[in-house]
Structure formats: structure tokens, C-alpha cells
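cron nightly-structures :: item 1 of 1
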Amino acid sequence: MGDLDVRKLRMLRELDERGTVAAVAQALHLTPSAVSQQLVALSKEAGVRLIEPVGRRVRLTDAARVLLRRANEIFAELERVQADLLAYSEGSVAEVRVAGFAATLSGLVLPAVRELRDTHPGVAVRLVESDPPHSFDQLVRGDVDVVLSLESKDSPAATDRRFHRVALLAERFDVALPVDHPLAHAPVVRLADLANEAWIFSNTGTCRDISFAACIAAGFTPEIVHHIGDWEATLGAVALGLGLALVPRLINAGPREDVVIRVLDAEQPTRHVFAAVRRGSEEAAHLAAVLGALTAAAELKAADREVSLHD
């Protein structure tokens, strides 16, 4: 058995994740032939057969499964080695690529960047707008260093050993009403009291799923009359009386005189925002600084929003 090439080992893990050589080739921007050659070479290095043909495709052997059980530990240890080297070079310039969906970039990452400019001026943050599962593919490949995501069907399970996770924010949804709505200034607003209203939902995704589930839990099926993905346009439609909307607190919408945002009593639809890095890399000084700044930004965002909604 020879020395194992870590890059080839990553390719084997990609095959386990994606199922076909063609899919691995597409993800890694290689040709299928190049991927096949690298996997054959890894088999020679390991001294055992790692893939076998099944019709026109290939599958992993039992030996490959044995190897992959240790792979995540190997990758995590390599990340720790890199973290140690970076910690040794404390004070040097570091670049951190952060991927997230638009609301997290504006609501959490930008405030974190402002803090880092004062506390860690040598850390440069590069922003990448990206949603799961693609953002996690980027994280595994090393194209980005931090991913901000929601707990959803498109995100990896909390038990996924490839990632170290940091919970950031339990982001509540409030209800947007036109300023002349009968309940706009009522002492209490319950979602069940709005069962007969028309609703504006996002086109797809977690916001739509959470809004729909909240209405069902409140005892009614919402009448969705408009599907709008842009929050400013959504609030504009609410102002015109075209429907009501459940809005997450991270949205970067300015104050309006024609829309009232009310906290719901009892029912509080929530989505959970977290940050993820490759397991082992959280020990790097520059990534620890970014995760700390994101945590502080999330805490400040939650506190500020609660104050503004209850003033």
C-alpha cells in the first residue's frame, strides 16, 4: 500500500455523494475520463479495488466503504493542521469567503464585516450569494470558507460530520398589514384571526413553506392570491390592500408609513439560521473571528428587532 493522495480521496467521497462519475466530473470541472483515471490511481495507491463496473456505471466496493469511514476524520485533521499553521502566523492577512442567501448577507454578514474592520483589520471578507445545497458543495470543495444557511430540507443534517455548525438566530416571522387594516392597531393579533384574508407568499423555498405551515397550524388553509419573491414588492402589495404577508425579521426593508408590521401573539413562525465551516477549520484564528462576529451580529439583530417592534 502506497501513500494515499488526499485529492483523490476527496474525489472518492464525491462519487459516494453524487453517485456517478459524470456528476463528479461536472461538480469538479473535470472530464469523466480524468475522474475515472484518478479513481483507478487511488485504487493502486490503496492496494485494493475501490470501484467496480455495474453496467455502464460504477459503484463503490466494500473496501471503498471502509476507506470512506475514515475519510472525514482525515479531512478534519488536515483542516486542524492548516488551522494550527494559520494560528502560528497570527496577524497576517487572511481572506475569508462567506456564502449565504441575500437576507443573511445584508442582515448578518455586513454588520459582522463592520465589526471585523475594527477588531481584525487583517481579515478580508469576500461575499458570495449562494443557496443550499450548492453553497455546501462550494464549502466541501474549498471554494468558500463559511456558509450561512437555514435549517431546511436542502441543508445537510445536523449530524453531518463534514461540517462544524454554529447556531446564529431563531428568526421569527411577523405579519405585515396595510395601515388601514381593522387589526393594524389591535392590542393583540393572532394568525387565526386572519384566516379569511388573502395572502401574499414567496414563490418557492423556506419562507413559503414556513408561512404555509404556520397558517395550517393556526387552523386554516391560506388563500394565496399573489406569489412575489421580492420583499419590497411584497410590502408594496400589502400597502395596496392586495393581501397580507408573513415577513422574516432579517429582510432589509426600510420603514413605511402605509404598512404596519405586527408581532403575532402565540403563533410565532420561526426559521433557524446557522453558520457552517469545514470540520476542523473552526480552530483557525481568522475563521473563529468571523464566526464570533457573525454571532455578535445575530444577537444584536435579534435584540434591535424586538425593541423596534415593541416601541
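cron nightly-structures :: done
Residues 62-88 form the longest helix (27 residues).
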